[in-house]
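Quick one:
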Amino acid sequence: MLLMRIGSSPDPRRPLGRPRPAAGAWAVLVGFLAGTPAAAGITGVCPDGSIFVVQSPGDVPCQQAKRVEPHEVPPLRPEYLPRPYTWEVYQEGANPNNPYNLIDAARKVRALGAEGVESQPGMQAASPGEQPALASSRAAGPVDLGLSDAELRDLFQIVELSQRAVPARFVQETAAGSEVLQVALAWSSAFEARVREARRGRAGPEPGPVLLFAAAARQAERFGGHFTFVQGHLAFQPEAEDADQLAVVQGHFGALEAGEVVLGYVLLPAAMDLAAPMDVYWHDRRRTVTFQP
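Output:
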């Protein structure tokens, strides 16, 4: 019988009887799994986080095991990775240069060549010698929230005061420790209701939770709103060019002068829950935040 079980149990009363493998041992296991014929074994993960490779279902060493293909075995200590494992998986699947995704893109291009540009919905007819242009389905800009100057000041204050109870602030500093740019996020039920009311009747799916963000430049710096939100198996990176994902209501993206501020909001996917912890990334900085504790 082939039986391998690697990992550590969180319950000290149920030790696995062998030391935790080093990074080199994990590399050996990956190499072993990659070279093992499909019929030679079953791979999976036990509820205690250990990984097993066995020859038959009766040899599985735990109840409620999750079977996985050898190439799908997750890392043993994902909390030590520079980015969340689920985010890396999402990036692989969403990457337009992934050969798997290029298959569908190539088929669409061949279909256009075979059927003609004029017959394709969402395409505009092109003059001879011109490239056909896709008709944009995005909104021309964010919805008009009708915010007064006083209300804008109140929203900046909401973001600032929220940091006391729910810290979600990022600070960019120089190598000498001088502050360059400060970015903070917060949730406001009243503002979310206002965004939903303003978007009523618009085409497209109903947005999920709405988060405010505020940025303040202490020195001249660029700000592009490069946020990433990860919760469970979901990962979302809003596009600054899509006002249905990321919108500015005061200021602008791009180069900021010292003293300039930006106020905007993010429309998260409906599946994300502000009452549960989520990892928020701004560039290479990360915070774990529960916006509705």
